[in-house]
Structures are given as structure tokens and as C-alpha cells.
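ok so i was messing around last nite and threw this chain in just to see what happens. nothing serious, just curious
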Amino acid sequence: MTVSEPGHPATDEPLASQRAELIGKLAIAQFDLENVLAELSRSGASTGPLETQLQNLSAAMRQVGTAGATALAGLRSDIAAIVAQSGAVAQQARTTATSAQSAETLEARLERVHASMDALNSDLFEKKVLDPYLRFENAEEEAAYRKREQERKEEIDRLRAIGTPDALRQAAQLQLDQVQDAGDHGAKDSPDYPRLLSTAQANLQEIEGIQAQAASQSQTASKDAVSRQAAPTPNAVVPAEMDEIGAALAAAGVSVGSNAAPAPQSVPDVRAPNNPAAGLS
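result:
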């Protein structure tokens, strides 16, 4: 209990305020981790690092709840490190979940564009739906057209077998070239021509979007690797106070005004047995 000054009753308010402040920080970090844990659980992703960090937070809360004035003052830097580490774990988990979701979206986009190119190939080179509307000045002109048509078909098949986004883009461009070539020889009169032209243009645009998405994911992965290397160590201190703590404690009627904390004494390491930095190497 705090020793009373002349004219003032003895009170535990400064110690209670310090304890409430530290527990408030831990509670906010815990809430953030629990939200991320719920998101990952729904997606079926691994939640091991999050669960370990939640255990560390719970252990720290128990230590703060039972610490005396001297031990509580010594705990400040440890609590700051655990909170910082929890934020790093939550951010890493969010990034992993987002990357997985993006990868699924990229795969789905590739599947859709492959299906669309299959259908367009069938209309152009198998069903030849534009052929009834083709017009040529002479046999030589038609022979040259058929030669280009066959060369494009073979090159499209070769590029699609390669399967890379750039090869796919080249194949889509050749499909568009074939539609436009047919249009230059009378196929614009076909009721199918607008649909085929629109499909070829859309496929090309979609593949370019896939290329941009793949490049963005690669950049994100590189940035994440750098961020993980720069993750805070257990001795790091977070100086900024969290606004939510003050609001929550004020609503509970707890004063968290600046009270001089006792000078730190040498105390045993009271952090959880599981190092809060574990799992982030």
C-alpha cells in the first residue's frame, strides 16, 4: 500500500493505475491476435504462432496482476516488447492469409482465361464460324489467308503449352489477330464477329491484369521478407501509448494519470517461458 503523505489518506491508486495501464495494452494486443486467429481458422490456415503468442500474452497478464510495485516497474519494458512482438505476429499472419487468398484468386483468373481461350480456339479453328462470311479477290489471297490461319493456330498451341503468363499473352494476341484478319476479309458481316472480337480483346486484357497481379505479389513477398528480418526483438520498447487504453480505463473509472513509478530494481525474468520472439525468425 502506498504510504500516505501528511493530510492524505493511504491509497493503492497509483499502483492500480499502473497495473490497469499494462493490462490494457496486453488486452488490446490479445484482441488483435484473436481477430486474426478467427480469420485464419475460417480459411484453414496454420494458427500455431498466433496461439503461442496468445499464451505469452495471458502469462504476462497474470504476472502483471500479481506483481508488486517494484516488480511492476521492472515489467514495463517486457510488456512493451511482448505487445510489439504480438503486433508483428498479427501482421505477418495477415500478410500470409492475404497472399494465400491472392494466390487462389490468381489461379481462378488463369482458369477462366484458359477456358475462354479454349472456346475461342474452337470457334476460330475447329467450327470456323466466320468462314461462311469470308470473301477473297482470288485464290492466291485465300491461300495466303489460310497459311496465316494455320501458322497462328500452331503458334497458339505452342505458346499455351508453355503456359507462362507472357506466353499466354502472346497466344491471346494471336487469337485477336486472327479475328481481325477474318474481319478484314468479310467476317465483320457475321453476327458472331462482335462476340469473338470482344472475347479476344477481353482475354488479352485479363492476361495483362494477371501479369500485373503476379508482379505485385512478388513485390509484396519481397517486402514481407524484409519486414520479418526487421521484426522487433524482445528487448525492444514501444514508447507510444495507445489511445484505446485511456478510453477503456476512463470508462471503467480508473485513473491512468502520470504517476511516478518506483525506480526499477533487479528482478527475475518474469516473461513467459515461451520467448515472445519465437516463431518469427
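not much to say yet. The CA atoms of residues 23 and 250 lie 14 Å apart.
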